[in-house]
Write a structure and sequence with these properties.
Length: 183
């Protein structure tokens, strides 16, 4: 009698397990979770026929305070985005704020020093964040200083724009940093 009960119980459990597996197959597929800092790209052909492209992870402010508990921290190197280093690519030789930058792809870093921003274009573009910048400092192709300003309106997600005249603007929270690229 015990054997019959055990066999019956085993069959019931096995049937329930198979039913649950079949039901699972018909359930709606799980939605993919959106990344916290989606990867974005902006590209523009500027005067002179030069293509300028920026790839970056676009974090959100989410109520945090830039410079306190959100990058960039004052005086510290920042990858100018999230995840892997932001890349800045030009198809031809250009000048940035009047200084030469050869055609190529670069890691783009910034240092915020209150209203003065240092823009860094580094040849070691395949890097994660700014963590390896110290070992690649010697690969800087260009450093240039620009004055940052207050954005006209708050920008929740880090955003880059490039216009046809070669004006590049980084908008992040209440910060606006602009520089000029010329072919």
């Amino acid at each position: 009698m015990k054997r019959v009960l055990l066999l019956s119980l085993s069959l019931v459990l096995a049937s329930a397990s198979l039913f649950a597996q079949e039901k699972d197959k018909t359930a709606a597929p799980q939605e993919k979770k959106k990344p916290a800092s989606p990867h974005e790209m902006v590209s523009q052909t500027i005067k002179g026929g030069t293509n300028v492209t920026i790839h970056y992870g676009s974090p959100s402010v989410k109520g945090r305070t830039i410079g306190t508990n959100l990058e960039p921290m004052n005086g510290k190197i920042w990858r100018a985005g999230a995840d892997s280093a932001t890349t800045f690519e030009v198809s031809k030789n250009v000048t940035i704020e009047g200084q030469s930058l050869p055609a190529g792809k670069y890691a783009f870093f910034v240092i915020n020093n209150n209203d003065e921003w240092t823009l860094i274009f580094n040849k070691a573009w395949q890097t994660w964040g700014a963590y390896s910048y110290d070992k690649n400092k010697d690969q800087d192709a260009l450093q240039v200083k620009v004055t940052g300003g207050k954005a006209k309106s708050f920008t929740e997600k880090l955003t880059y724009t490039i216009d046809k005249n070669g004006t590049v603007t980084m908008l992040w929270g209440d910060h606006a940093v602009t520089f000029h690229v010329k072919a």
